[in-house]
Structures are given as structure tokens and as C-alpha cells.
Write a structure and sequence with these properties.
Strand content: 15-25%
Structural class: alpha/beta
Order of helices and strands: HEHEHEEHEEHHHHHEEHHEEHEEH
Shape: globular
Bound molecules: adenosine monophosphate, manganese (II) ion
């Protein structure tokens, strides 16, 4: 692993113009790792840009400077190195998939089971809880000052990918990294306030919907949000983030999922499992992916009933 860290740091130091990418619909780990690296590279006086087409959530807008992000297509000729953070596959790069197909001059930093995206050098370790943990290793190797700003970005990703050190991916390394980031200046209380104590009235309406409408089948709990309901509640997919995580907390439930119909016929599934149960393989059967205990997939289906049956079928299949 140390070899990959050194090789990636060497390429980053050598490059003058660097473009950073993360996965579609970026979460706090995706943005935290990308922004952490961005600020580190700025210290080295690199020309560095972050590309992402998707809008930030309300919490992400508070934590990360969205104005930095380039939402245009990337002109590959303008850069001499490309970095993918928290991305295991070409598909998860969304519209920037082409950028990575067009040239091999890229590196990958990620904690997913790799699904095909590999570049010149790759620091990939699925045993680590978040991409931000791995990014700290890279940034240390760059020998820049780890500022409060960098530490905060990385802490946010670590905290949110472990759901505040609760998920089964939490281990001694996660706590060690958290401790180091606090020593570098991450203000844990302030960040927790933004991450976990800023519920809006609208988010309460969405929680109400969850607890009034969830179902349990065998050891699986689920909740579906059809497009008409989403419109009635004046919400969007991100308002349902956390549904599957809430449902997995139920005693006796080993699998949970939520399905949001983002637009008529287009379904987004979020899956969770308790330790010892694997949702990644089930998401993969439907064309998605993720981690053992947290995975997801998007697909088209006839209607919500059809979508729900597809997910229930794969969960039943391997049980
Ligand atoms: P979520 O349930 O949206 O929090 O996603 C949980 C994890 O599943 C993410 O961290 C991703 O690694 C993975 N994931 C979510 N959606 C997809 C997808 N469409 N394809 C592949 N992996 C996904
Ligand atoms: Mn992510
Ligand atoms: Mn992640």
C-alpha cells in the first residue's frame, strides 16, 4: 500500500494541471476526499479543478464551497493528471466516464471493491471505512500543511461514511484517523452540528412518511417513495437519504432498503444490511454496487410494484 501512496504522491507533485473527479450524486465522503486533496494541491501551487455535474445537498452546501466546482465537460488537453476519488467504476463517473476512457493518465483513490476503474496507480483499500481516510495518507505524503480546512473536509467524509462511527466499516483505523484529524484542527462539535443537528421541518415530514409507511417482510424492512408522493411532499431523492439506515436499526431486521421514484419509471434504491449480511452482491445482481453493508442501484421498471419485487427477489434469492 505504501508503494501506491508514494507513487500517487510523486505523480501529483510532478503534474502541473490536475483535474479531480468523484462519483455521481456525490456524498460527503466523495466531496470531503476531493476537496481535501484540492486544498492540499492548491498549497503546492498546482492548477487544480474539481468537476461534478450534480447539485450539492443542503448540508453539503454548508460544508463545501460549491462555487469551486466546474460543472462543464472536461477538456482533457488542459490537464496532465486526472484523479478519481471514491469511485470504483467508469459508470459511477457519470458524464465524465468518457474523460477516463479517453486517456489512461489517471490515478484512483478509493475504498470500494474495485469494479474496473484502474489507472496508472491506484490506492484502493476496501478495508478502510472511507475514501477520506485514504486521502489523508496521500496528503501526508505530499508533505503539505494539513490545515483545519483539509482536516474538516476529511473528518466530514469519515464521519458520514461510518454514519458517525456506527456502521460495520468502523474500526480502530477509523478512530485513529479521526483522532489525527481532530489534532489537525477539525472542529468535531461544529461539524457534528452541521451534519446531524440541522433537521428541517421538511426532513421531519420525510421521517414521518418513513415511519408511517415502512413494511417488513421476513428479515427485510423497506419503504418506497413513489413519484406522486415525492411531488406531494415537494421533495427530491436526497430528502429520503437515511431511510435504509433508519430501517436497519430495527431489531430482527438484517436487510433494509428504500426505493425512490426520481421520475416516472426511474427508481433509485438504497440498501443496508447488518454485519454478516451482504447487500453489495444483491445490488450487483441488479446492476449496482457498493459495500458489504451499504449498497445501491438505479434502474428502470414498469412501476413501483415491479421495482419493489425486483429488490425483494434478489434479497430472497441469496438468503
Ligand atoms: P446510498 O444508499 O445511496 O448511501 O449508497 C450506499 C453505497 O452504495 C454508496 O456509498 C455507493 O458505494 C454505493 N452505490 C449507491 N448507488 C450506486 C449505484 N447506482 N451503483 C453502484 N454503487 C452504488
Ligand atoms: Mn461515496
Ligand atoms: Mn465512500
Amino acid at each position: 500500500m505504501i508503494k501506491e501512496i508514494k507513487q500517487i504522491a510523486k505523480l501529483l507533485k510532478k503534474a502541473k494541471k490536475i483535474a479531480l473527479f468523484t462519483h455521481i450524486n456525490p456524498d460527503c465522503d466523495a466531496l470531503g476526499s476531493t476537496f481535501g486533496l484540492y486544498y492540499a494541491l492548491k498549497q503546492l501551487n498546482k492548477k487544480v479543478d474539481i468537476y461534478s455535474k450534480d447539485p450539492f445537498t443542503a448540508v453539503e452546501k454548508v460544508l463545501f464551497d460549491e462555487s469551486v466546482i466546474k460543472k462543464t465537460l472536461c477538456r482533457t488537453k488542459e490537464y496532465d493528471l486526472f484523479v478519481a476519488c471514491d469511485v470504483p467504476s467508469y459508470f459511477r463517473l457519470g458524464e465524465y466516464e468518457k474523460t477516463f476512457h479517453e486517456n489512461q493518465n489517471f490515478v484512483v483513490v478509493d475504498h470500494h471493491q474495485n469494479a474496473g476503474l484502474k489507472g496508472l496507480h491506484n490506492y484502493i483499500d476496501p478495508a478502510r471505512s472511507s475514501c477520506c481516510e485514504l486521502m489523508l495518507d496521500i496528503i501526508k505524503m505530499l508533505k503539505v500543511k494539513i490545515t483545519k480546512e483539509i482536516a474538516s473536509c476529511l473528518y466530514v467524509g469519515l464521519s458520514s461514511d461510518t454514519t458517525s462511527f456506527v456502521n460495520s466499516n468502523t474500526n480502530s483505523k477509523s478512530f485513529q484517523t479521526a483522532s489525527q484529524l481532530i489534532n489537525y484542527g477539525a472542529d468535531v462539535c461544529a461539524l457534528n452540528e452541521t451534519l446531524y443537528h440541522t433537521r428541517t421541518r421538511k426532513s421531519i415530514d420525510f421521517k414521518k412518511y418513513l415511519w408511517n409507511n415502512f413494511k417488513i417482510k421476513g428479515d427485510c424492512a423497506y419503504c418506497v417513495m413513489p413519484y406522486e408522493e415525492l411531488s406531494r411532499l415537494k421533495g427530491k431523492k436526497s430528502d429520503c437519504d437515511g431511510y435504509s439506515t433508519s430501517l436497519i436499526s430495527i431489531q430482527g431486521v438484517n436487510y433494509s432498503f428504500s426505493i425512490v421514484e426520481e421520475k416516472t419509471g426511474y427508481f433509485s434504491v438504497s440498501m443496508r444490511s447488518k454485519i454478516g449480511y451482504d447487500v453489495r452482491s444483491k445490488a450487483e445482481l441488479l446492476g449496482g454496487g457498493g459495500h458489504l453493508c451499504a449498497a445501491g442501484v438505479k434502474f428502470k421498471a414498469k412501476d413501483m410494484e415491479d421495482a419493489k419485487n425486483k429488490v425483494l427477489a434478489v434479497i430472497k434469492k441469496e438468503n
